[in-house]
């Protein structure tokens, strides 16, 4: 019986990724802790911006940051963090547009804050 066989009352090993089962070998693994670190540090910067709050959510298994204007919750933005071209980037999940490199935390917070002020004022 293999490691992945289901036996009642025993701990089950996770199934291998489908790519490995097909014989293509292991897929490149991108550590999720880096994504979380960038989003966490960005969330801390929103604590200093008045009128905005940041909460974490999960969309399709990925942690994202919801930036919500306190007085107009419908104007919220969902910010994700994606690994592309050898580095981490913040992106607008709904618009599917890159915002800035994840290393530029303060600039990203200012840009999102400014855009949200414009939306709230409209």
Map the helices and strands.
Elements: H1 18-21, H2 32-46, E1 52-59, E2 62-69, E3 77-84, E4 87-92, E5 97-101, H3 105-121
What are the segments in which pLDDT stays under 50 over at least 5 consecutive residues? 1-6, 12-17, 19-23
Which percent range describes the beta-strand content?
25-35%
**What would you call the structural class?**
alpha+beta
The share of residues in helices is 25-40%
Number of strands: 5
Number of domains as seen in the coordinates: 1
- Run of helices and strands: HHEEEEEH
Transmembrane segments: 49-68
Keywords: Membrane, Transmembrane, Transmembrane helix
Region (Disordered): 1-25
How would you characterize the overall build of this protein?
It is a single chain. This protein is α+β, with helices and mostly antiparallel strands. It has one domain. Helix content is 30%, strand content 29%. It contains three helices and five strands. It has a five-stranded antiparallel β-sheet. The N and C termini lie far apart (64 Å). Mean pLDDT is 77; it is low at 1-6, 12-17 and 19-23. The chain crosses the membrane at residues 49-68. Keywords: Membrane, Transmembrane, Transmembrane helix. Residues 1-25 are annotated as: Disordered.
Quick summary:
This protein is an alpha+beta fold. Helices cover 30% and strands 29% of the residues.
């Amino acid at each position: 019986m293999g490691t992945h066989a289901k036996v009642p009352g025993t701990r089950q090993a996770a199934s291998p990724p489908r790519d490995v089962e097909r014989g293509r070998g292991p897929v490149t693994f991108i550590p999720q802790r880096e994504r979380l670190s960038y989003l966490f540090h960005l969330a801390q910067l929103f604590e200093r911006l008045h009128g905005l709050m940041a909460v974490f959510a999960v969309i399709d298994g990925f942690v994202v940051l919801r930036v919500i204007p306190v007085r107009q919750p419908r104007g919220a933005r969902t910010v994700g963090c994606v690994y592309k071209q050898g580095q981490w980037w913040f992106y607008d999940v709904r618009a599917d547009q890159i915002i800035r490199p994840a290393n530029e935390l303060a600039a990203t917070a200012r840009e999102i804050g400014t855009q949200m002020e414009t939306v709230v004022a409209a």
